[in-house]
Amino acid sequence: MSLVNATRYQWGYLHEAMEVDGAHAVELLFNPAIDRGIHALFLRHIADSDPTALHVVIADQAGFHLPVDDVRLPANLRLLPLPPYCPELNPVERFGGLLTAAVANRLYPTLRRLEDHLAAAARPWSTAAAVSALIHTWLADQVNSGAPT
To answer: pTM surpassing 0.85?
Structure first.
């Protein structure tokens, strides 16, 4: 007797951003696909959250991230690319690790259930104090070092 097991997978991708200075807000976008068009929408959402502010986004060099000269970048948003293979420099990596630990090694019957669990796992980091605790002190100290006094 032969048993056939047909494992099926669905993929979900989570965009994460943390505000280093100011309100220390967290922005999340969960999607079943990932590409530069979706990344452009996420950056537009960040830029639109405060149209009068200049938003500087620290980004690794993932293939789906927009390059610094992409025409889809909002006028009030700048990208600060990290050197390759330096996740320790990106404050959102710590947050991503905490979310991954909360949802890893579980089976979810639907992407919606995974998204709901991610939202619940992110809730403890919805306060400014919690987000601030995830940010490297050297980054917080330097974020406005070049701003006019």
So the answer is: no
